[in-house]
Amino acid sequence: MPLLEVRGLIKVFGRLVALGGVDLAIGENEFHGLIGPNGSGKSTLMKCVAGAEVPTAGTIRFAGQDITAATPAKRARSGLTLKFQITSVFPGLTVYDNVLLAVQARSSTAGLVFSRTRVALHDRVMRLLERFQLAQRCAERAAALSHGQQQWLEIAVALACQPRLLLLDEPTAGMSLEERRITGELLMPIKRDCSLLIVEHDLDFIRNICDFLTVLDHGNIIDSGTVSHIQNSRKVREVYHIRA
Hints:
Blueprint: E1 4-13, E2 16-26, E3 31-35, H1 42-50, E4 57-62, E5 65-66, H2 72-78, E6 80-83, H3 95-104, H4 109-112, H5 115-131, H6 147-160, E7 165-169, H7 177-187, E8 195-199, H8 203-209, E9 212-217, E10 220-226, H9 227-231, H10 234-240
Parallel strand pairs: 3-8, 3-9, 6-7, 7-8
Antiparallel strand pairs: 1-2, 1-4, 4-5, 9-10
C-alpha cells in the first residue's frame, strides 16, 4: 500500500482547470519529484495534498486513511508536513529557538515542565542543527543566516515534527550552485526517516536525489516513472527538452 495515494484529483479556480484528474502514488522512504513549467499545477497539487487547498474532486489517502477533507492540522498530526517556497522562519529568534519551538509542538504540556524532558529536547534540537550544518550558529538570530541557510533551517524545523512525508516546494530557489549541491547532500540521509515529495525547477538537482519523477503540463500528467524512464521519454523530451 502506498504511503500517499492521489486518485483523480481535480482542482478548478473559476474557469481555470489547475488539475485535470491527477493520479500519484508515493511509497515509504521514497523521494518523488514533480517537474513542469510554471502554471503546470505542481504547487496546486502540493497544496491539495497538504490541505492548503480543497480539491474540487478526487481523493487523497495518506497512510491508509482518506484525508481529502482533513484539516491541515490533522494532516500534520498524521505525519504530513509542507515547506513552502518562501522561507517562513522567525528571523528575530535564534536558530536554536526556531527548531526548539517546532520540537516543543510535538511534546505534551505536562512533559515540558520536567527538566529531563528539556534536556531530551535539547539533544533533538542539536541533532537537527548538526544535520543541516547549523549547530555552530545556533545562538545567532535566524535573520543573520544566508538565504540558503535559512532554507536549511526551515527544513530542519519541518523535520522536527517527525513527518512520514515531507513536502518541499522549490527548496533551492534563490540558492547558489554550491548551496544547491549541499542541499542535495543534506536531504539524502532523511530517506531513512521519511518520504519526500518535492517540486523543483532545477532538473539536475531533482534527478540526482529522486527515485521517481512525475511531469505535469497544464494540470495533467505527461509521464511518470523512474528518473531513467523520464530522461528517455520521447514525449517528455519533446515538450521540456530534458537532457538524457
